[in-house]
Design brief:
This protein is mostly helical. The protein is built from 4 helices and 2 strands, in the order αααββα. A two-stranded antiparallel ribbon has the order 1-2. β1 and β2 form a beta hairpin.
């Protein structure tokens, strides 16, 4: 989630799957789970929709991340 929070633009997960830190099914299941909780928004009606972290959670996660790097 911190990676998603650090992205200023929407994320095309199909392009991100080349990273292979997670399996394709694990990544999609995680995004669906975050979407059900209202943490991630999907924008675009095409096959290559972009995912966005809700701005409130984005600010929260980036704030926590900056606090941990300061200490």
């Amino acid at each position: 989630m911190t990676w998603l929070a650090s992205q200023e633009e929407g994320v095309d997960l199909a392009a991100k799957l080349t990273d292979r830190q997670f399996s394709k099914s694990e990544l999609w299941e995680a995004m669906r789970s975050l979407g059900r909780r209202g943490l991630v928004e999907k924008r675009g009606a095409t096959e290559r929709s972009h995912l966005y972290l809700h701005p409130l959670w984005q600010q929260y996660l980036l704030g926590i991340q900056s606090e941990t790097t300061e200490h």
